[in-house]
Amino acid sequence: MVRVLLIDDDELVRDSVAIALKLAHYDVVTARHGGEGFALFTQQRPDIVVTDIIMPEQEGIETIMAMRKIDQSLPIIAISGGSSMGMVNFLDAAQSFGATRSLRKPFGPKELIRLIEECLGKTSA
């Protein structure tokens, strides 16, 4: 079973996405911020990571960069509802710093699952 590490500080988003992924037969491990997510990453070795960008304690780009130092091939999907601040587009920045793909909130479960399957090299049904 594919293990997904889901990192998001918003409890409602985290719980609803985790439920949708579990219903799609993924093993889901969740974290509330990047620091917690990075610790789980080193312990659990997920097959794919889905991380929010704007979070307290340790934000998503910093987390992505730390994961990339350990695993260059791990698929990482960056998600964010805060699209930009000033001249910085967070999702574009996340891809520049190592995210495989990005997805703007709000998104539907089918859209995320399709992206996960794409990142894992699977064909969507």
Major beta sheet, strand line-up: 2-1-3-4-7
Major beta sheet summary = 5 strands, parallel
Say how many strands there are: 7
Shape label: globular
State the gist of this model.
The protein is of the alpha/beta class and 125 residues long. 42% of the residues lie in helices and 22% in strands. It has helices spanning 11-23, 34-44, 60-70, 90-96, 109-119; strands at residues 3-7, 27-31, 48-52, 76-80, 84-85, 88-89, 101-104.
Task: Report on this structure.
The protein contains 5 helices and 7 strands, in the order E-H-E-H-E-H-E-E-E-H-E-H. The chain is globular. It has helices at 11-23, 34-44, 60-70, 90-96, 109-119, and strands at residues 3-7, 27-31, 48-52, 76-80, 84-85, 88-89, 101-104. It is of the alpha/beta class. It has a 5-stranded parallel β-sheet, sandwiched between helices. It has a two-stranded antiparallel sheet with strand order 5-6. Helices cover 42% and strands 22% of the residues.
